[in-house]
Design a protein that fits this description.
Elements lengths: L2 E3 L4 E4 L3 E5 L8 E5 L1 H8 L10 H5 L3 E5 L2 E5 L4 E2 L5 E5 L1 H6 L2
Length: 98
């Protein structure tokens, strides 16, 4: 799924992650979408993900994009000085409340 955010915006991505974009981000829309294979390729060895099945992990964690430019991937330990995003897993809280 794709979640579009403007600076200072927040939302729920993939039904599992609460994400918020810093107010310091530039004007215009940003997209929160999966890190995916392109994100892994762009991060290279700088990705801070478990070495077991990183492609599967990248398929289900959020990243901040502007077009094809990776801006931030908080769960992979990457952020750009242009903007920052926080991502908090909310799925477990929802499951325990049932």
């Amino acid at each position: 799924p794709v979640l579009r955010l403007d600076r200072g915006g927040a939302g729920l991505w993939d039904g599992r992650f609460k994400v918020s974009l810093s107010r310091a981000a530039g004007q215009g829309a940003y997209e929160v979408r999966r890190l995916g294979p392109l994100g892994l390729k762009l991060l290279g060895k700088g990705a801070v993900l478990p070495s077991v099945e990183p492609h599967r992990i990248a398929a289900c964690v959020p990243a901040l994009w502007r077009g094809e430019r990776l801006i931030a991937a908080p769960l992979a330990g990457f952020k750009s000085p242009d903007a920052s995003i926080s991502a908090q897993f909310s799925g477990l809280a929802q499951l325990t409340e049932r």
